């Protein structure tokens, strides 16, 4: 494969969504649009001729490397492909509180949210977005929760310091017309 085809392959492999042609062309400023189109053809042919389990597909306004359709049912049945599920507003609010205040106990979260959060915490724990990180020294030594590496991965963060600062978050939420409680 040409170096440009390898570069496009790397970008397409890393992207969770289709990459528009203009973005692919921007990967190598010295390549012409015709050269990028030729490299895409080369990459598509590579997957087709060599019998790979993936293929290069143009869809959704861009290009993407996808599993071949004939393998989709087996992959879905084996549950090896993980698709993140959307979180409810209650789950997002609870997760944000945990992320900003960790380690934090259930009672503190319920005090902030004003509602019981037992089932939401269980759901977030089952999704591996939060985990038990210890016990409080308070009466009954309640469990303390913190975020997991899966949380960072799902929200494309390298570390918790990349979370927006509370003042930035408050401004963004006000701009969106949201009245959610913003952790300090």
Automatic annotation (TrEMBL):
SUPFAM superfamilies given in the database record: Winged helix' DNA-binding domain
Domain of life where this protein originates: Bacteria
Biological-process GO terms, alphabetical: cell division; chromosome separation
Keywords tagged on the record: Cell cycle, Cell division, Chromosome partition, Cytoplasm
Stored InterPro entries: ScpB_csome_segregation, WH-like_DNA-bd_sf, WH_DNA-bd_sf
NCBIfam families according to UniProt: SMC-Scp complex subunit ScpB
Name of the protein described by the UniProt record: Segregation and condensation protein B
UniProt organism field: Gemmatimonas phototrophica
